[in-house]
Amino acid sequence: MTQPAPHQQPLWRRYQEPDDRGLIDDVCDGLRLITEPAGPDDPGQTIALAIVGAEAAEGLAAALDDEWALYMPQQAAVTASALFAQIAAAGAALEKLSDHLDAMAERGEITVPDYDGTGEAERLCTAQSVLGAAGQEAFGAIDARDCDEAVDILATTAYTGPSPGSTHETYIQLAALLDDAKLIPAC
User: What's the pLDDT tens digit per position in 91-101?
Assistant: First the structure.
């Protein structure tokens, strides 16, 4: 499989941190240990990926409750790009999870899911149907062209606020926002 040209990659894959903190790499390094180069090789790692994804999604939703979570439309563009990718990936994962029930049945590990069956077979078919339908719903919830357009609009929206160039400038701007705040140097 060939890699898409850089301009074809989603914005979240092309994003470069504006400073040298490397926070994205620090947060993602543990995840990349599992996902690169061949992906997870046991059920524990697969489950860990699912849980990390859920915790990250919940954390992001909580972070976005704060009006200062993002400062510029370009940051919203990167965030939206990543969220659209999460929706698509979640849809694909749910459909693949549904397929895993068939694989388990073929190996004789579970009863074959069957809607016309009884007991466990019928219950497994219900679960499989819900997984597949939820996966398709996630895919249907987004239109790639609309998502790309929304990200492009955000990425090209002019930012009219003053953007700090250093940590010192950030503190000065923050101090200006606070009533009666004093900036104490060398603290």
Answer: 999 999 999 99
